[in-house]
Amino acid sequence: MKPDDVTNAISNALVQGGAQWLVATIVAFLPVLWTMTLMLHLGRPYVLRTLRRCGLRLGADIWWMSYLLMRDAVLLLTFALSWVFFAPNLVVNNALPITGPLAALCLLLALAVKLSRRVDDDVAAYRWATAFLVLGATLYYSVQVFAVEAASQSYLAGFGQIFTSNSNAAVALVIMWISLASVAVIAGWLFVRALQSANRSMARRLAPTSSKPQATIVPTPVAP
Question: What transmembrane ranges does the database entry give (predicted)?
């Protein structure tokens, strides 16, 4: 074997090992992000009670805006990292929760509710967002704990065999493609809704200008 072959083999091993380590780290860290997402979302009543006790209006505004930014940023980060469940190669070759794509889909549904309705003012919208987040967290937590992380437990071997992606690749790919198609539909709907909202806003801005009556210029007669 030539020195170049040895170098290439070592480089490929490092790249593949690093990629697998990164995917495994993301999958293992996602429960933390899911927990933070649920805590920040369900902690809204506590934040509101704290705001009522705050005497300074500026302090209350800063507290509320900080809460909103953290809550939505963690939700977006969780969905962004959940995108690893939509890569067919990773799903087939790594031990991932088979319900990971469904959990990511629930995240996107909760985000769609937040973008399309006033979750902080509408009780029904808040309940819908909460239901999607709790459902997604349940789908991820249960399979991650009892299938992926319990591979060494013999009494959970059957459960792990069914709900781990690389050991049940056919079903995992079906779930992934269905979830990916649903994500595409929801993303398209959000794009169309955002485009319509932008058009309505632009129309409202241009309406006063276009509705103003144009001044009629009356020619002044010239004295002979």
Answer: 20-42, 62-86, 98-116, 128-148, 168-192
Per-residue pLDDT tens digits of the chain, which is 224 residues long: 666 666 666 666 666 666 777 888 888 889 999 999 999 988 888 888 887 777 667 777 888 888 889 988 999 999 999 999 998 988 888 888 999 999 999 999 999 998 888 888 888 888 999 999 999 999 999 888 888 888 777 777 788 788 888 888 899 999 999 999 999 999 999 898 888 888 887 787 777 655 455 555 555 554 44
Residue 205 lies in a domain: no
User: Measured in whole angstroms, how far is the alpha carbon of residue 117 from the centre of its chain?
Assistant: 16
Residues in CB range of 136: below 8 A, 6 or more apart:
34, 102, 103, 104, 105, 106, 107, 110
Contact (Cβ atoms closer than 8 angstroms) between residue 30 and residue 81? yes
Strand pairing partners for 164?
97
Does the predicted model carry a pTM greater than 0.70?
yes
* Structural domain includes residue 214: no
Contact between 156 and 144 (Cβ < 8 Å)? no
Note every long-range contact of 69-76, with CB atoms under 8 Å and residues 24 or more positions apart, other chains counting: 70/40, 71/37, 71/40, 71/41, 72/114, 74/33, 74/36, 74/37, 74/40, 75/37, 75/41, 75/107, 75/110, 75/111, 75/114, 76/111
Whole domain around residue 9: which residue ranges?
A: 3-197
Q: What are phi and psi of 157, to 5 degrees?
A: -65, -40
Number of domains observed in the structure of the chain: 1
